[in-house]
């Protein structure tokens, strides 16, 4: 992935917030991101697909649900950039984290939205 491709991905608010939430939570499914971002399933899925297509995210299917996580094999410069963005922008996703946690503890969230 080139720097131009990477920063174009981050230039969209939905993709940036989704990525920061995934970094914060380690792994999220579409339904969790819908709750956190208050966005529709097609919009969230479209943006996740773009990030997956470039290799920024990996997905894991569990039944009918798809969980997304950051690709652990990204170049070091991307990992460093993502770490800096994440550490220094917690306030950017603070309301989204509140929305996400309204779903309850992770096992409860998985039972509620993903089974």
Describe the model.
By secondary structure, this protein is an alpha+beta fold. It has a single domain, classed as Arc Repressor Mutant, subunit A (Orthogonal Bundle), CATH 1.10.10. 62% of the residues lie in helices and 12% in strands. It has seven helices and three strands. Strands 1-3-2 form a three-stranded antiparallel beta sheet. Helix 3 packs across helix 4 and helix 3 packs across helix 6. The longest helix has 13 residues. The radius of gyration is 13 Å and the shape is globular. The termini are far apart. The model has no long low-confidence stretch (mean pLDDT 90).
Provide keyphrases for this structure.
about 120 residues, Arc Repressor Mutant, subunit A, 3-stranded antiparallel sheet
Structural class: alpha+beta
How many strands? Answer: 3
Q: Please tell me the overall pLDDT.
A: 90
Major sheet characteristics: 3 strands, antiparallel
Count of helical stretches: 7
Q: Specify the oligomeric state.
A: single chain
Strand proportion: 5-15%
Shape: globular
Total individual domains: 1
Fourth CATH level, the homologous superfamily: Winged helix-like DNA-binding domain superfamily/Winged helix DNA-binding domain
Distance between the termini: 34 Å
State the helical fraction: 55-70%
Strand order of the largest sheet: 1-3-2
Q: Please state the CA-atom Rg, rounded to the nearest Å.
A: 13 Å
What is the correct CATH architecture? Answer: Orthogonal Bundle
CATH class category label: Mainly Alpha
**CATH topology heading:** Arc Repressor Mutant, subunit A
GO molecular function, one term: DNA-binding transcription factor activity
InterPro entries: ArsR-like_HTH (IPR011991), HTH_ArsR_DNA-bd_dom (IPR001845), HTH_MetalResp_TranReg (IPR051081), WH-like_DNA-bd_sf (IPR036388), WH_DNA-bd_sf (IPR036390)
Pfam families: HTH_5
Domain HTH arsR-type: 1-90
